[in-house]
Task: structure prediction
Amino acid sequence: MDNNDIVIRLRYALDIKDQDMAEIFRLGGEDLTTEEVGKVLTKSEDIDEEEESEDHIKCTNSMLESFLNGLITFKRGPQEPKPGQPSKPDRSIKNQSSVNNVMLKKVKIALKLTAEDIIDILDEVNVKITKGEVSALLRKEGHKNYRQFGDQYARNFLQGLTKKYRG
Result:
């Protein structure tokens, strides 16, 4: 699952309009027009190499993280920086394998989800997971109990979000 697919599925699950998508990217520090957002919201497998530059914008890890940070600000409001805290957060997505874990963490923050909510969302699509496993998914990469949130779990999570928020 690539970054464009994650953004498309989150947009659909949370029923976010194009104008709001552009605002979310802007809140995350990525200036995209509504037209450019439309190009990000095209699936990569539908695009061949020649069309890539004209009708499709590949969502980089940096763009995805900006979108997720913007989603947090969009849903919860801006946060006042505490003394000694950097104004811009460090990039959480270090490599492609950590994308799904970061997505889970940031969606959890944006939607004010608890571990029980995540368990319920995954249960909606018949995926059984324990509270300990959720805790391992939310750990920092490199922690001894860290567990990678695979693509299939991510798809199921986004599908469960769709069922929860769209009925």
About this structure: The longest helix spans residues 61-76. The mean pLDDT is 89.
